[in-house]
């Protein structure tokens, strides 16, 4: 197997590590490409290619995260991770850890950790790397990595929501939700929403803040049904789709361009949170991106109300 072929075999793992550290598809792809350039330029072959490449992509991702955190502190409005449609890496022995760690809620919890804590948690708790490999990847002693892992696990356990474990039940509830949404059924939506459900958006100052800060089943149900009819009237479509391992949807305009994504947090048979990402910078990896302002204007006109 050539060096390039071996790298391509490990690319899904490298991307998955980097995405969990960075919460960004585009930045993770860049980190993986940087890892390849460093590997290709290396004059010697490592004893373990997997260990070497995992360490390199981790270090690159930590450096990127440190600079990204400064930008995120100045981000306009609520910051959410870039939506991930499909995790390219699969490991049957760690399927639960992999699925749990890629949810929007888990990635937002990871944002609270320091870059080193985050990297250690991802390598150790999500991918099951031994502490010698973790220590080598982050450039710290094994003892220091054990302490970082303990602190990270404590923070994650304290804030981690307990989502419904039964995937089929979540999918069925999501199917009912999008069915009621498509029919404009306020009562049907309301009965699926938690009393304190929260609908919130990430527009990054580059798109309208659809649903930003709407709280409560009655308010959210009415906002959703108010949006749908004029949206469909102008040729918009709602495409149910799993996003970050959770039930969700991709919204598309009349030309099939991506407007935004939704993810649903489901707990105890109710929808607790609806997160929508409409910042066009975070959607380009899904497909051609719509002009969100044009969509809002046309939707408002179809509803017969001012666009601002």
TrEMBL record:
Keywords on record: Sigma factor, Transcription, Transcription regulation
Domain RNA polymerase sigma factor 70 region 4 type: 105-156
Domain called RNA polymerase sigma-70 region: residue spans: 7-69
Keyword Transcription regulation: yes
Pfam families listed in its UniProt record: Sigma70_r2 (PF04542), Sigma70_r4_2 (PF08281)
Signal peptide (from-to): none
SUPFAM superfamilies the UniProt entry points to: NTF2-like, Sigma2 domain of RNA polymerase sigma factors, Sigma3 and sigma4 domains of RNA polymerase sigma factors
Subunit and partners: Interacts transiently with the RNA polymerase catalytic core formed by RpoA, RpoB, RpoC and RpoZ (2 alpha, 1 beta, 1 beta' and 1 omega subunit) to form the RNA polymerase holoenzyme that can initiate transcription.
Family per similarity comment: Belongs to the sigma-70 factor family. ECF subfamily.
Protein name: RNA polymerase sigma-70 factor
Species of origin: Phytoactinopolyspora alkaliphila
Source organism phylogeny: Bacteria, Bacillati, Actinomycetota, Actinomycetes, Jiangellales
């Amino acid at each position: 197997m050539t060096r390039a072929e071996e790298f391509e075999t490990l690319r899904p793992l490298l991307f998955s590590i980097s995405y969990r550290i960075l919460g960004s598809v585009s930045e993770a792809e860049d980190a993986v490409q940087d890892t390849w350039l460093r590997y290709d330029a290396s004059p010697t072959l490592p004893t373990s290619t997997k260990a070497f490449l995992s360490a390199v992509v981790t270090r690159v991702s930590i450096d990127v995260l440190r600079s990204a955190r400064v930008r995120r502190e100045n981000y306009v409005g609520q910051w959410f991770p870039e939506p991930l449609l499909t995790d390219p890496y699969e490991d049957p022995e760690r399927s639960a850890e992999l699925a749990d760690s890629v949810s929007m809620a888990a990635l937002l919890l990871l944002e609270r950790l320091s870059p080193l804590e985050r990297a250690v948690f991802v390598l150790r708790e999500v991918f099951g790397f031994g502490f010698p490999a973790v220590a080598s990847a982050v450039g710290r002693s094994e003892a220091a990595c054990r302490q970082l892992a303990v602190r990270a696990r404590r923070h994650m356990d304290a804030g981690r929501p307990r989502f419904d474990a039964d995937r089929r039940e979540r999918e069925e509830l999501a199917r009912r939700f999008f069915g009621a949404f498509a029919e404009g059924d306020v009562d049907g939506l309301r009965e699926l929403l938690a009393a304190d459900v929260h609908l919130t958006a990430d527009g990054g100052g580059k798109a309208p803040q659809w649903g930003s800060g709407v709280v409560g089943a009655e308010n959210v149900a009415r906002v959703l049904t108010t949006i749908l009819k004029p949206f469909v009237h102008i040729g918009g479509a709602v495409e149910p789709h799993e996003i970050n391992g959770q039930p969700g949807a991709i919204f598309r305009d009349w030309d099939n361009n991506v407007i935004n994504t939704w993810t649903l947090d489901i707990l105890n048979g109710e929808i607790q949170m609806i997160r929508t990402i409409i910042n066009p910078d975070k959607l380009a990896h899904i497909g051609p991106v719509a002009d969100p302002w044009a969509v809002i204007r046309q939707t408002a006109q179809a509803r017969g109300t001012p666009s601002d």
